[in-house]
Amino acid sequence: MSFTLHPRLAAGSFELGELLGCRVLLKNNAIFPWILIVPQVEEGIEDLHELDPETYGDVVVVIREVSDFVASHFHPDKLNVACIGNQVRQMHIHVVGRTEDDPAWPGVVWSFEGKREYRASEVQSIRTAWEVFTDQ
To answer: Domain HIT: where (predicted)?
Structure first.
């Protein structure tokens, strides 16, 4: 099976790595600690219930790992985890750290129009932290 990351996901994020058949991406919006998990599955599989049991199990493990990373690195008040895909149909899961003082609180981040792109040094710092976290 060949896998191609959706151009919109690729353009709006930075690669952090790969874990259990999933691409792990940092969304390029520094307002929120926001990581995308993109299972490398066949085109047309869009929702979690469509995964075979083994792949589903792997994706859940990755969701937990990414959630643990966001919680320990960014220290949010709350984690939001969702597999929405209304605009980009390629399966991807959002893991977003929220704080009570973020500009979208208590609303959703999905349609929040504010944005601040990451500086290269910030991306590198998060990549390094991710690498250290996943090497444990």
So the answer is: 35-105
Q: CA 73 to CA 69: how far, in whole Å?
A: 6
Residues 40 and 29: their CA atoms lie apart, in Å, by 23
Q: How many other CB atoms are found less than 10 A from the CB of residue 86?
A: 6
pTM of the full structure: 0.95
Phi, psi torsion values for 121, nearest 5 degrees: -65, -35
Q: What does the pLDDT look like over 39-95, one tens digit per residue? A: 999 999 999 999 999 999 999 999 999 999 999 999 999 999 999 988 899 999 999
Residue 130 falls within a domain, yes or no?
yes
Please say whether the beta carbons of 35 and 26 come within 8 A. yes
Per DSSP, 30 falls in state T
Domain extent, residue 62, equals 7-135
Per DSSP, 119 falls in state P
Residue 130: both structure tokens together: 């991710």
